């Protein structure tokens, strides 16, 4: 999928979920060729008139080959840019013209009662958006150019009928679909229905063989692994999502071994943030800063050891630790491909069950949002919300320590949901902040 932007445009690559930014000339070339299906001579004429370049057909063909070469190289390496100047290397604006993805928590209903749940999910909320409202919202997202919808909850399969209706409708409009589930409700029939509705990628929450039941309930692990095996048998692309914490820290090796054994190619580690039930059980889960350093070193080591058999991904604060701690940082393979900055509110949104539009699900679970879809259009919220502008504001509204930090380009102030959960301030220092090689932040302040 390609989409026009003020700086040129983007290419959204579905298999890797990567976004490639192009300058105006490169994007216009792709637009004329792939969307308008124009001939080489017609493209040359239009680009010459619009940009004053390409006076011969050979020039336009050489340029087209250059764009194609860089695109193939980027897709192979799973990166969002190349070093060539035909690509827009960095978008200097505050946000894209529309969200690229929506992590859609469309219901609070859940069949489990996990002790670390940030959403405190169990029963559905009284005024959740109904199916018709959600379908209209899919239309809005299509109109403004959203590329990807990832459905979550709660447990989305607890509202399977609505999920399938939304999936079928979105697939017909050309959206790329994802699903985040606990997999306990998956069987052969459900898997076939999901595939028929356009779902091919499923993220399954995994805590570890021992920790899983202690966090999610007795007997849940057996149901989860059964669901995972059904999904793999039905040829879904499965990702393990691990909320890493004190209870499962000692099970990391077994999680990787299980991924290899079950044929799972992606393992994603998610940061625990004390929100919802997680806040009430914070002492069971939350690491100290020193523990986080140990964890980050393990994740970086595994990322090296297991790639490309398994792709290990993690939150950006682990990337920040790796940037200071990893001796291999200067020679990391291009195919690792990451974005240092948090996409929340810049390229990603989360629509909450009652229609609130948040930058990310964690911020949404804190009751913070940029507006209500029942009152304003998604386009108006994205472009005009003061809350979203605040999230995107960068250094000028951040605390002085972060704004003056040498590490700003790697971290951008850390996880804003975590800052708010601990201090009641989105722009406060991340409680798990790192600074300089080998130096740790103690008690929320920088080592200087």
Describe it:
- The relative contact order is 0.09.
- By secondary structure, this protein is of the alpha/beta class.
- The protein contains 19 helices and twelve strands.
- Helices cover 41% and strands 14% of the residues.
- Helix 1 (24-35) packs antiparallel against helix 2, helix 4 runs parallel beside helix 5 (160-173) and helix 12 (289-306) packs across helix 13.
Short overview:
With 448 residues, this protein is an alpha/beta fold. The protein has helices at residues 24-35, 40-51, 57-77, 131-144, 160-173, 188-196, 209-216, 220-233, 252-262, 277-280, 282-285, 289-306, 316-325, 361-365, 378-384, 386-391, 400-403, 408-411, 416-423, and strands at 2-5, 8-13, 18-23, 101-105, 148-152, 176-181, 201-205, 237-244, 266-271, 311-314, 348-351, 357-358. The chain has a 9-stranded mixed beta sheet with strand order 10-9-8-7-6-5-4-11-12. It has a 3-stranded antiparallel beta sheet with strand order 1-2-3, covered by helices on one side.
């Amino acid at each position: 999928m390609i989409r026009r932007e003020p700086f040129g445009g983007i290419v959204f690559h579905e298999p890797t979920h990567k976004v490639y930014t192009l300058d105006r000339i490169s994007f216009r070339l792709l637009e004329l060729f792939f969307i308008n299906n124009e001939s080489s001579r017609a493209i040359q004429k239009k680009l010459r008139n619009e940009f004053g370049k390409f006076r011969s057909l050979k020039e336009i063909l050489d340029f087209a080959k250059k764009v194609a070469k860089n695109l193939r190289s980027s897709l192979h390496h799973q990166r969002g840019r190349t070093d060539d100047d035909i690509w827009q290397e960095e978008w200097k604006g505050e946000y894209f013209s529309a969200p690229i993805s929506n992590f859609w928590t469309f219901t609070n209903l859940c069949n489990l009662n996990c002790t670390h749940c940030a959403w405190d999910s169990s029963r559905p909320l009284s005024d959740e958006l109904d199916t018709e409202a959600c379908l209209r919202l899919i239309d809005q997202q299509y109109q403004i150019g959203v590329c990807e919808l990832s459905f979550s909850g709660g447990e989305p399969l607890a509202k399977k009928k609505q999920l399938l209706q939304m999936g079928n409708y979105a697939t017909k409009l050309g959206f790329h679909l994802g699903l985040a589930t606990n997999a306990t409700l998956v069987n052969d029939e459900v898997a076939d229905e999901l595939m028929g509705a356009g779902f091919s990628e499923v993220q399954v929450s995994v805590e570890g063989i021992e920790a899983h039941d202690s966090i999610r309930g007795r007997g849940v692990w057996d149901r989860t692994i059964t669901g995972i095996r059904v999904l793999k048998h039905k040829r879904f692309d499965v990702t393990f999502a691990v909320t890493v914490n004190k209870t499962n820290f000692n099970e990391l090796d077994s999680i990787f071994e299980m991924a290899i054994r079950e044929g799972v190619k992606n393992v994603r580690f998610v940061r625990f943030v004390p929100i919802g039930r997680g806040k009430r059980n914070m002492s069971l889960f939350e690491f100290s800063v020193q523990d986080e350093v140990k964890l980050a070193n393990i994740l970086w080591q595994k990322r090296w050891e297991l790639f490309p058999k398994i792709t290990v991904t993690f939150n950006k604060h682990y990337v920040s630790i790796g940037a200071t701690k990893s001796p291999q940082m200067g020679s990391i393979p291009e195919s690792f491909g990451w974005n240092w900055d948090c996409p929340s509110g810049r390229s990603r949104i989360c629509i909450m069950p009652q229609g609130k539009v948040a930058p990310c699900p964690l911020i949404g679970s804190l009751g913070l949002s940029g507006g209500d879809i029942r009152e304003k259009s998604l386009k108006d919220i994205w472009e005009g919300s003061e809350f979203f502008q605040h999230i995107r504001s960068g250094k000028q509204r951040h605390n002085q320590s972060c704004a003056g930090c040498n590490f700003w380009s790697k971290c951008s102030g850390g996880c804003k949901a975590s800052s708010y959960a601990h201090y009641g301030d989105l722009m406060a220092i991340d409680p798990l902040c790192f600074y300089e090689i080998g130096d740790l932040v103690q008690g929320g302040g920088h080592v200087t």
